[in-house]
Design goal:
A hairpin with a 5-residue loop joins strand 1 and strand 2. The termini are far apart. This protein is mainly α and 266 residues long.
Amino acid sequence: MLKKLLLTGTCALLIAACAQSPTGRRQIMLFNDAELGKMGAQTFEAMKAETPISKDVRVNNYVKCVTNSLLLVTDSDMRNQNWEIVVFESDQVNAFALPGGKIGVYTGLLKVAENQDQLAAVIGHEIGHVIAGHSNERLSTNQALQTVLALGDAGMKAYGVKYQQELMTAFGLGAQFGVALPFSRAHETESDIIGLDLMARAGFEPRQSVNLWQSMEAQGNGGMPEFMSTHPLPDTRIKDLRAKMPEAMKLFHDRKAASPLPQCKR
């Protein structure tokens, strides 16, 4: 009976919100674009209030040049959003994109991304998260897990299962390492692929993405095993990018032959 209860709850969630990512991966999507856009805008406003914003015109123009070049090759729904691009004064080596047309780039990233192509690799990756609906999927997956765990807890109580707390703890850990973290690694890998495609079609040299992650590799991940990490290990990421590189280079050469390449100056 407990197994039936869990299966019924899980199947109901899957049937209600089954979707497919740009790379053909199955997804659970429980939220609509308006909800996500509102959450993204609120998060972005909070970040702007907490983190200093760069006033350097040259830096802002450089970041916007790269970002807008990438957005030009997205589909019309993405391209026509009123995108807000902000450069934050912070040593963080990072960037992000949020639902609702929000992109943030930290000045620390500009110390590591040596040229426009490497910066495009990171920003293209972040735009890839939005294109693939990863925020929706992450929120939906977490909600689905909570629902299944709640059903399991209720079922165990109803049928007097012994060692309930121990079983629920084990089930929770299994859900975390068996579903939540792999989904996150899948998101990162998928965004790498989408970002590589975007930068190639926008006219940024795809091979620079590998150069960037090779530089990042020196920072390491604290020695955490990959199965417990939310991101692929650098070697895995570089291997996956190289596997897609022939296709990306063809797109880049086609773009190069069609029109002048971006000239975003630091």
